[in-house]
Amino acid sequence: MRNMPRIASVLALTIASLASTVLLADEARYNQIALRAEVNQEVAHDLMHVTLYTDAQHADPAKLAAEVTSTLNKTLEQVRQVRGVSVKLGSRHSYPVYDDKGQKITAWRERAEVRLESADFARLSALTGELLQSMKMGGMDFSIASDTRKTREDAMLKDAVEAFRARAQLATEALGGKGYKLVSLNLSTGGFQPPMPMRAYAAKGMAMMEAAPAPEIEAGTSQVTVSADGVIEVQMP
User: Fold this and answer.
1) Disulfide: which of 87, 118, 172, 208 matches 177 by Cβ 3.0-4.6 Å?
2) In the beta sheet, which residues pair with residue 96?
3) CB 226, CB 156: distance < 8 Å
């Protein structure tokens, strides 16, 4: 029974310590505000992408595959002779063609893509016009090169932090604080690319590109965004 007062004293100290920890945790979160700031910049597209395709139909699937492969190989060989244009194969698939009753396979049809990319718009446009003698237009798009995007984002990081600091100061003044502490800060990047009107070439077909094999290119822009998300703790007088 002599140990009872000592045990009670230890329990009281433990409870007091826990209560103090809870109060400190609550105090650490006191006057904390989550803020977000972002900076945007329109960046000109400096990469041009063209998708060409070939399709054919044949009763013999082996002969069909050979025909499509031959067309692809000739296209690849022609593209590789042009400096500054990269090329890779895209999707390739085949499917059966049925009779009017939908019961018997009468032939096979196959479609295969070739994808071109270049920073030299005039050169790729001229090459595309030549390739449309044997290929068909699947689409044309523009984008920002990875190195260009990274360079712009790095330059915008400082602006995003400055924008966050300005917003933090405004929030502090609005609450009547004498200053603030930065609790956390996260920086992220993103962007938005609007639909490109050059896709209309795919719908209007080969005739337009053959009539103007090197048209004036309006590549457009994409919006690059750097965001600063963070938490501050306002210090009150």
Assistant:
1) 172
2) 108
3) yes
